[in-house]
Structures are given as structure tokens and as C-alpha cells.
Amino acid sequence: MKEKELSELLHSGFGSSFYAYVSQYRIEEVKRMLLDPTNQQFTNFAIAQQAGFSSKSTFFHLFKKHTGMTPGAYKKKHLKQA
After folding, report:
1. Cα 43 to the center of its chain, rounded Å
2. CB of 15 within 8 A of CB of 51?
3. What pLDDT shows up at residue 82?
4. Phi, psi (rounded to 5 degrees) for 56
5. Range(s) of the domain holding residue 70
6. How many CA atoms lie within 13 Å of 10's alpha carbon, on the beta-carbon side?
7. Which of 22, 65, 73, 80 could form a disulfide with 69 if both were Cys (CB 3.0 to 4.6 A apart)?
8. How far apart are CA 7 and CA 13, in angstroms?
9. What confidence score (pLDDT) does residue 9 get?
10. CA 50 to CA 27: how far, in whole Å?
């Protein structure tokens, strides 16, 4: 499949660009990994790198944009509820 076809398919099916779709997927993976007890020894950015982020500033910006909070606040809030 050509890149343009994939981009059009994602836009029509999900209403987002390829970049936005991949970013959202990575954020969901980071959220899952942040709450996994086996990952508690890793920094938030180390977890983000495992999900495919290479820039710390981009990761923190996108995480806050998608969740409304920093990764640390997300982790603290959700681990407290568990």
C-alpha cells in the first residue's frame, strides 16, 4: 500500500493523520506500561522510548495533550486507585 493511500484510509476511518494515529497508539502503550508493576524501576522517558518516542519534549507534550496531565501525575493518580 502506498503511503498516501494509507494516510487517506486512516483519515477516513479514524479521522486522523498517520502521525496522529501512531502518536495516539504510542501514548496508549506508555499509559499501559506506566502502570505495569514490572516497569516501576524505569523512568517515564525510558518507558516512552520503549514505546517508540525518541524526543523527551515531544513525548511530554503529546502525553499532556492526550491525557491532560504529565506522565508522573497520570502514574500517581492511577496507581493510587489500584
Report:
1. 15
2. no
3. 60
4. -65, -45
5. 3-81
6. 16
7. 73
8. 10
9. 85
10. 11
Q: Dig out the grid coordinates for 56 from the structure.
A: 523527551
Q: Which residues are CB-contacts of 47 (< 8 A; sequence separation ≥ 6)? A: 30, 33, 34, 39, 71
How much is the CA Rg of the chain, to the nearest whole Å? 14
What amino acid is encoded at 12 in this protein?
S
What letter represents residue 44's amino acid? Answer: N
By C-alpha distance, which of 75, 41, 70, 73 is closest to 57?
70
Number of domains in the chain: 1
Low-confidence ranges of the chain (pLDDT < 50): none
Per DSSP, the three-state class of 17 is coil
Q: Can you give the CATH number for the domain in which 40 is found? A: 1.10.10.60
Q: Which three cell numbers stand for residue 46?
A: 525510558
